[in-house]
Amino acid sequence: MSHDTSYTPPLEEPTDPRGPLPPTPDTRAPEMRTATGAEASKDPNARAQQGDYLTTAVGRRVPDTDHSLRAGDRGPTLLQDHHLREKITHFDHERIPERVVHARGTGAHGTFTAYGSAESITRAAFLKKGVETPVFLRFSTVLGSRGSADTPRDTRGFAVKFYTSEGNFDLVGNNIPVFFIQDGIKFPDIVHAAKPEPDREIPQAASAHDTFWDFVSLHTEAQHHTLWNMSDRGLPLSLRTMEGFGVHTFRVIDEAGATKLVKWHWKPKAGVHSTLWEEAQLIMGGDPDLQRRDLYDAIEGGHLPQWELGVQVFDDTEDQMFSGIDLLDPTKLVPEELAPVQPVGLLTLDANPTNFFAEVEQVMFNPGHLVPGIDVVNDALLQARLFSYVDTQITRLGGPNFQQLPINRPHVDVNDNQRDGFHQHAVHAGVAPYRPNSLGAGNPFPAPAEQGGFVDHPAVVAASQTVRAVPASFADHYSQARMFYRSMTPVEKDHIVSAYTFELGKCTVPVVRERQLQCLANIDADLCAAVAKGLGLPAPEATEKVADVEPSPALSQVGKPFPVDGRKVGIVCDEQSDDATVTALVKAVEKASMVPFVVGPHGGQVGSVEVDKTFATARSVEFDAIVLAGQIAPAPDAVPSYDARNGDQAALGTQTDPRIALMLGEAFRHCKAIGAVSAEAITSAGLPADAKGVVVADGAAIIDQVAELLTLHRVWDRYPTVSK
Ligand code: HDD
């Protein structure tokens, strides 16, 4: 577009956007031209498919998409077939590079509603009382490829994009509050060590290999995060039952310019729960998408996942220490007992993506996407991230215009003077994408703080020599790892011991195992001894003097009751089950806000009840509790054909259908609540009917008791460590 000749530019650059000057093309938002015109371009989906007929990419209708154009039906294919070439060319380029880390993930849309409790510490508009802000949340594992499974032992990403009235704010966190490294310059090292080994590219999505343990045992600041990974936190039950953490300390600034330091926390309303390692392994084989499916189904089923956002607040002191903890050290957390988490708002996930690629794959996050009232601190890990998250998109999303993708666009006006580049979709008008200008009437104008401008906090940088070093307070690599371990219950400690024993048992280089044992000796002698025993190695003595820190019970997941909304109950029935009982159980589960799944010996109906899953398609690990709605005898015609996985009935020594005996045996071993309408149904499967967490009652009355047990997630009293 040529510039507007009716407008005579002034001699000086205009300074007032509301002055007498007429608006010029540069003052309008860029247009997105589509085949259906500029109006439709306001709809972010306007470029998606439309019309009733199949067309080429430029709208020519296509009569046949199944046969290429050939010189006779047995002859060669002709190059002139535009539709063939276009179809194949586009297909050939459908994949983009997966994320270098956090490649496997899923996401959902939601709404964040602020309580207003943060108004006293930050001027951020989205935290003012009652303000509702649309969000997009992407969960991820870190190590695995895009096609890997949902339940490896790993850290989980917890990245939230707030489309605020002041631009996008991204809180790009994890489900673990500390990180492996204190300086972002080490990020390629930890990732190279943890990813599949470069010669054979194994193992996929796993830290149980030599290079990972080689690195973390040498680079001992990683030990605290590693311990979290070896704990139940490395195996979240579902995406709905994970905490999220901003990890770094951030600075918040109020209306008057006063500052505080904060750490961000996401607390799931459904509680913090985990799988057991055996369950996680079974899931990876049986349904590697289970957590993705669970999130999707929960949202579709109206069991909307919720998290409360909270902050720990600290004075913005010169030394940026709190209770002896360096707030700039991302390998340290601040125990909630010392600084309680104060809730500031509620996030509800309420809509699934429409298109996985367009939204989940193309979304990008950046810890540098800040809004007025929130700023960064001199955490060397965070500072490196501020560079990395923009840079990586240039390759991953193919150029500098990734912010124009619908999922990444802010919900406010954009007037950034950025032009051109690969995949430029905007049709910018005007001639003056630069400042200062008079030809564009001075537009766009710099916004001072009163106009919502993000004014960098005038942080005082101490006069100092340039140096490649960390402060002395960063040298303590073990005291918080020790605190974490000693804050665990016996069950959780047992899981940690098993995890280290498994992971180090997978290492093939003796010195790697030995060196990691040495690190464990510095964390806790009992932990070290137990792992050493499992590995058949001597337990070394500690080499470092490590401070004993008061345990933090808030770090443990066990023994804290939570609502059971959305938890999954398998109601197992067979031809002998009473229809009325099954129906009553289903209703009772729904009434308790949980999700019932009728599991039967075959598809279709059992009696008059519709079956959701069959003995062939369901595995115990999909359910939080199992209820037997009948005797569950083996189907007379089915016994000879049971597959090898289930064994045969005689070998299992039960009078129950072996597939159910397997399901019950697993649920029992995994400390899940089990209900039955008769004690015989339990005992004939070879399990004690009077064991803790096994409920025998009439019909729907079982469900109340099962729900009660589920508030504590599992029946840990049955766990061998506890019961022995
Ligand atoms: Fe990172 C992705 C979280 C340190 C470089 N990171 C990524 C994602 C999450 C985190 C949740 C996935 C975002 C998505 O869903 O698209 N990363 C963290 C946390 C860290 C952290 C909590 C420490 C506290 N990251 C970190 C460092 C660097 C990176 C130190 C580099 C210096 N992270 C990246 C990246 C990724 C990424 C390479 C890969 C894909 C992407 O950014 O968009 O730039």
UniProtKB/TrEMBL annotation:
Positions of the Catalase core domain: 55-443
Stored SMART domains: Catalase
Cofactor(s) in the UniProt record: heme
Region spans: Disordered: 1-50
InterPro entries, per database record: Catalase, Catalase_AS, Catalase_clade2, Catalase_clade2_helical, Catalase_core, Catalase_haem_BS, Catalase_immune_responsive, Catalase_large_C
Molecular function (Gene Ontology), one example: catalase activity
SUPFAM superfamilies given in the database record: Class I glutamine amidotransferase-like (SSF52317), Heme-dependent catalase-like (SSF56634)
EC number of this enzyme: 1.11.1.6
The protein's enzyme class: oxidoreductase
Described function: Decomposes hydrogen peroxide into water and oxygen; serves to protect cells from the toxic effects of hydrogen peroxide.
Similarity section: Belongs to the catalase family. HPII subfamily.
Protein name: Catalase
Organism: Arsenicicoccus bolidensis
Organism classification: Bacteria, Bacillati, Actinomycetota, Actinomycetes, Micrococcales
